């Protein structure tokens, strides 16, 4: 499924580190659950893939996350579907 990126809440984690990205990600997910947003966008960039790997590692463990996948055209973006 190809989603328009501008339609959903977006978190840009450029500049975050491996150590800090989890806190920002967790807070963003919890806020969007409260707002009843079922789809969110995480912009981590391509780079060396460190942030993407860290984000995907944590998303796999988070119960509110139904599924997640890389955007079809932009591999620097992860789309997250939440259990709402």
Structural overview:
With 84 residues, this protein is an alpha+beta fold. It has a single domain (5-82), classed as Ribosomal Protein S8, Chain: A, domain 1 (2-Layer Sandwich). It has two helices and four strands; from the N terminus they run E-H-E-H-E-E. It has helices at residues 21-34, 50-61, and strands spanning 10-12, 39-43, 65-70, 77-82. Strands 1-2-4-3 form a four-stranded mixed β-sheet, with helices on one face. A hairpin with a 6-residue loop joins strand 3 and strand 4 (77-82). The mean pLDDT is 93.
- Return the CATH topology: Ribosomal Protein S8, Chain: A, domain 1
Spans of at least 5 consecutive residues whose pLDDT stays below 50 are none
Largest sheet: 4 strands, mixed
Q: On the 0-100 scale, what is the average pLDDT?
A: 93
Name the structural class: alpha+beta
What's the gyration radius in Å? 12 Å
Supply the CATH class: Alpha Beta
Q: Any idea what the shape is?
A: globular
Distance between the termini: 19 Å
Q: What would CATH call the architecture?
A: 2-Layer Sandwich
Oligomer: single chain
Quick summary of this structure?
With 84 residues, this protein is of the alpha+beta class. The chain is built from two helices and four strands.
Q: How do the strands and helices of this protein lay out in sequence?
A:
Elements lengths: L9 E3 L8 H14 L4 E5 L6 H12 L3 E6 L6 E6 L2
Parallel strand pairs: 1-2
Antiparallel strand pairs: 2-4, 3-4
């Amino acid at each position: 499924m190809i989603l328009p990126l501008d339609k959903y809440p977006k978190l840009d984690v450029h500049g975050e580190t491996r150590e800090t990205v989890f806190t920002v990600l967790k807070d963003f997910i919890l806020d969007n659950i409260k707002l009843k947003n079922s789809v969110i966008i995480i912009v981590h960039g391509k780079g060396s893939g460190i942030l993407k790997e860290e984000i995907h590692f944590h998303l796999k463990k988070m119960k509110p996350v139904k599924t997640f996948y890389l955007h079809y055209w932009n591999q620097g973006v992860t789309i997250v579907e939440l259990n709402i």
